[in-house]
């Protein structure tokens, strides 16, 4: 038994590596930059946790969400690792000062792109011996950096003082364009790339075009109340997540809502309740899901068109991590295309915003916090005209991405083949339960041979629909 296999078994409790894991870990240990694209549930955390114990120094993990950081910190502590810390805005001033003062004592250091810009934190990191650096959920560099978190684009500046360490970029989905953004931002030179097939054969795809919001809601409530979870219902509206939750609770479903306007402590509590099986369903905006370690999610339902195929696949990929049959269902109508575009662009500056923000008297410009943050970055990088052109191109790209997903759902071609092709991959084999356009046996899938899958029910929520739709 070699050293890698020994650590895998003794420290992590696994008998064998999954496909690609050993190869990636060996490249990390050799000091190479690595871009690893593996579907959710393929053990991406092991790719930085295991080599950390074979290299001297600390591992810096740049992570997009507080909940994701906290979950990974707790996982390591449960494995007996005490040398782990998360440096983020969730810490009080005193806690942060204590952590920074003792930073040399930690093996795993988690942080956010925003905290990475802190000058004192940068100085402390520069004084450490870093084994290597990890960019977790690295697709966020491309998908979020240009949208609402420009600090992702500032990572390259932060890395210049730390660039002696090699970088491991991890994500579940990435197109060639996203991989290019990852390489550029993380200052990678000829990195080793491992790209696993993104097909999840145990996830069946189901798409239904409906005529009205009422029809959409009726379908969703009937599906959830007549089938089993666990599951996640995604909606673009915070108000709708609360509505669905209330109506499902009336039907005896163990469910809670989750969105970005909730207190951080409440969100963490609900996430833990779902992971531990105290809740069967979560009604959530896209603020929920990244980093959720729950293997037995059976259903993902969307009541809208997500803003891209990549975002859709990220959310769908949270089902069936245990390799058992699951289903991803999406309910949509034509008006959802414009709604998705509005949601995607609501914090983006228009031409007039950009012109005013570039003028001397900036205090007169009333912009959202997100818009100001976006423009504060680009004002340091581009001219007024260049910034106007940049966001013109971004708007056009967003519209094309949304239209691409709508076209994919609406045409008669296999959904699975199309989503895999979006990431420049080819589908090798189709499972028996593939998609609603190929073959999909819902009775078999839900194991409900003794009763109808969808029962006709007149619900008392119909009179309330007008207030939220």
What brief labels describe this structure?
6-stranded parallel beta sheet, Rossmann fold, single chain, 7-stranded parallel beta sheet, 469 residues, 40% helix, disordered C terminus
Plain-language structure description:
By secondary structure, this protein is of the alpha/beta class. The protein has two domains: 3-195, Rossmann fold, CATH 3.40.50.300; 203-338 and 403-467, Rossmann fold, CATH 3.40.50. The protein contains 19 helices and 13 strands. The chain has a seven-stranded parallel sheet, with helices on both faces. It has a six-stranded parallel sheet with strand order 8-13-12-9-11-10, sandwiched between helices. Helix 2 crosses helix 3 (46-52). The chain is globular and about 60 Å long. The model is unreliable at 448-469 (pLDDT under 50). It comes from Psychrobacillus faecigallinarum.
Estimate the mean pLDDT confidence: 85
Instruction: Specify Rg, calculated over alpha carbons.
Output: 23 Å
Q: Helical content, roughly?
A: 40-55%
CATH architecture of the largest domain: 3-Layer(aba) Sandwich
CATH topology of the largest domain: Rossmann fold
Number of helices: 19
CATH class of the largest domain: Alpha Beta
User: Could you give a short account of the major beta sheet?
Assistant: 7 strands, parallel
Principal-axes geometry comes out as globular
Number of structural domains: 2
Distance between the termini: 61 Å
Q: Strand portion, in percent?
A: 5-15%
The chain-level structural class is alpha/beta
Task: Tally the beta strands.
Answer: 13
Uncertain runs are: 448-469
CATH superfamily of the largest domain: P-loop containing nucleotide triphosphate hydrolases
InterPro entries: DEAD/DEAH_box_helicase_dom, DNA_helicase_ATP-dep_RecQ, Helicase_ATP-bd, Helicase_C-like, P-loop_NTPase
Organism: Psychrobacillus faecigallinarum
Protein name: ATP-dependent DNA helicase RecQ
GO molecular function, one term: helicase activity
């Amino acid at each position: 038994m070699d050293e890698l296999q020994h650590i895998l078994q003794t420290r992590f409790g696994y008998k064998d590596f999954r496909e690609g894991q050993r190869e990636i870990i060996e490249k990390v240990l050799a000091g190479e930059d690595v871009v690893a694209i593996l579907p959710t549930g393929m053990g991406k955390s092991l790719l930085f946790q295991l080599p950390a114990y074979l290299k001297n120094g600390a591992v810096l993990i740049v992570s997009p969400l507080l909940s994701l950081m906290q979950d990974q910190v707790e996982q390591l502590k449960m494995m007996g690792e005490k040398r782990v810390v998360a440096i983020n805005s969730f810490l009080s001033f005193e806690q942060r000062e204590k952590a920074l003062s003792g930073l040399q004592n930690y093996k795993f250091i988690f942080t956010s792109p925003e905290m990475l810009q802190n000058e004192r934190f940068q100085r402390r990191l520069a004084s450490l011996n870093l084994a290597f650096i990890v960019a977790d959920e690295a697709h966020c560099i491309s998908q979020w950096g240009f949208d609402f978190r420009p600090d992702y684009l500032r990572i390259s500046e932060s890395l210049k003082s730390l660039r002696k360490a090699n970088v491991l970029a991890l994500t579940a989905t990435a197109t060639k364009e996203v991989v290019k953004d990852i390489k550029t931002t993380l200052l990678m030179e000829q990195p080793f790339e491992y790209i696993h097939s993104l097909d999840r054969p145990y996830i069946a795809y189901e798409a239904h075009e409906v005529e009205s919001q009422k029809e959409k809601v009726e379908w969703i409530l009937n599906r959830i109340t007549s089938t089993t979870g666990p599951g996640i219902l995604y909606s673009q509206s915070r108000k709708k997540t609360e509505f669905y939750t209330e109506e499902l609770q009336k039907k005896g479903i163990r469910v809670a809502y989750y969105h970005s306007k909730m207190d951080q402590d409440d969100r963490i509590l609900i996430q833990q309740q779902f992971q531990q099986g105290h809740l069967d369903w979560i009604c959530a905006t896209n603020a929920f899901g990244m980093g959720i370690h729950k293997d037995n999610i059976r259903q993902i339902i969307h009541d809208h068109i997500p803003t891209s195929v990549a975002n859709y696949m990220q959310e769908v990929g949270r089902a069936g991590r245990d390799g058992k049959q699951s289903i991803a269902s999406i309910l949509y109508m034509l008006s959802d295309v414009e709604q998705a575009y509005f949601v995607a662009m609501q914090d983006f500056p228009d031409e007039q915003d950009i012109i005013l923000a570039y003028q001397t008297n900036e205090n007169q410009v009333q912009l959202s916090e997100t818009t100001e943050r976006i423009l504060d970055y680009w004002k340091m990088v581009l001219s007024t005209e260049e910034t106007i052109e940049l966001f013109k191109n971004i708007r056009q790209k967003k519209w094309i991405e949304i239209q691409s997903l709508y076209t994919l759902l609406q045409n008669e071609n296999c959904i699975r083949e199309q989503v895999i092709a979006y990431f420049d991959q080819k589908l090798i084999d189709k499972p028996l339960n593939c998609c609603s356009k190929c073959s999909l046996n819902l009775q078999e899938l839900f194991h409900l041979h003794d009763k109808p899958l969808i029962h006709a029910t007149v619900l008392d929520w119909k009179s309330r629909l007008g207030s939220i739709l």
